[in-house]
Amino acid sequence: MKRMSLLLSLFIVCISSFSKERRAEDYYIDAYNKIGEMLTGDSLLSIKKAVFLAEWAYYEGRLNYATDFCEEIERIRNYVNLFYAVNNLRKYKTGKQIALTEYFFRPFSGNGYRPYLYDEESFINGDESWESQFVSKTLKTHSGQCRSLPWMFKILSEEIGADVALARVPGHCYIMYKDEDNRTPEEWINLDITSQQMQPAWWIKEDSELRDSSIIVGTYMTPLTDEQTVACQLADLAHGYYMKFNRYDEFTLNSASLSLEYYPMNPTAIIIYGKSLTNLLEKHMMNNGFIYDEYAFYLSILIENATKKLERTYMKSLSTERLEHKRKQLIEHKNNIKN
Predict the structure, then answer these.
(1) H/E/C letters for each residue in the chain?
(2) Does domain 64-224 bear CATH number 3.10.620?
(3) What residue spans define the domains of the chain?
């Protein structure tokens, strides 16, 4: 009942926004509604559209779906399909994945002889802004981070009909797909787009210092379904909201809550959900004269349950030193590629 009331309040805000000048928050409400419709089956599930909507909301509508997103994606799709046909890659069961990988990693006329590389400048210059992780930026600059590069790869795989999935490890995303051509000793190809490497599962596990439990429950090193991928994007929408407005509130609570219905083992969504509840509890206590009433008790129970949910994911946090080491590795890989 509480969740329904929060959703209703968002709906009222959305309706009222049409009678006055749109606020920055209204774009987030629109994006939430549209991504939510994908998850509930009221509209077509589209990872490309979900990614666009999250970036569109951050830019307050100053991003055009046709010109800033679809036109370049369609151009790439046409080139990769031609590359697939000309090089007779249909003889491989994973020929489309191979074609897309070549497009990303090698200089060809179709990418302007500019492969898609790790954006070391953002790291060196200390640019940790949320928009540095956007797919729309990578489409324009041919450089990106450990979020934007694999997400762009996933979007393009949808366009050409290649069956790939996103997978996560602490602070990083990569691509997984079935090794139907037996190119490796393993069942899955683990393709790291930032370092342009195929990596064995044991190495990823060791490099990320993961326990078996986090893999068994599906938190890390697990191929996400398309539904889970869109749910993950809804959590990123909430994270972008926090990065933009520097607050957790009813919006972040609703976004994280809906995301968790479809992807319950996402630590990011659980953390946003828990921090949003904590913020609501603090506001309620201040407005209520710090009286611990029935509603405060209810929120406390939800916070406690969120903590238990997070524990069940066996989330792993990388230390600052470890994260910096991994980033320096990516820069070294990039320099090796250039050389």
Answers:
(1) CHHHHHHHHHHHHHHHHHHCCCCHHHHHHHHHHHHHHHHHCCCCCCHHHHHHHHHHHHCCCCCCHHHHHHHHHHHHHHHHHHHHHHCCHHHCCCHHHHHHHHHHHCCCHHHCCCCCEECHHHHHCCCCCHHHHCHHHHHHHCEECCCHHHHHHHHHHHHHCCCCEEEEECCEEEEEEECCCCCCCCCEEEEECCCCEECCHHHHHHHCCCCHHHHHCCCCCCCCCHHHHHHHHHHHHHHHHHHHHCCCCHHHHHHHHHHHHHCCCCHHHHHHHHHHHHHHHHHHHHHCCCCCCHHHHHHHHHHHHHHHHHHHCCCCCCCHHHHHHHHHHHHHHHHHHHC
(2) yes
(3) 64-224
> Which has the higher per-residue pLDDT, 97 or 130?
97
Token reading at 155: 């979007």
Q: Quick: pLDDT tens for 216-268.
A: 999 999 999 999 999 999 999 999 999 999 999 999 999 999 999 999 999 99
138-141 contacts at long range (C-beta below 8 A, 24 or more positions apart): 139/68, 139/69, 139/72, 139/73, 140/72
pLDDT value of residue 339: 66
pLDDT in tens, 268-302: 999 999 999 999 999 999 999 999 999 999 999 99
> Given the DSSP bridges, would you call strands 188-192 and 172-178 parallel, antiparallel or unpaired?
antiparallel
Whether the CB-CB separation of 167 and 173 falls below 8 Å is answered with: yes
Please determine, for residue 32, whether its predicted confidence score (pLDDT) is greater than 80.
yes
pLDDT above 90 as % of the chain? 80
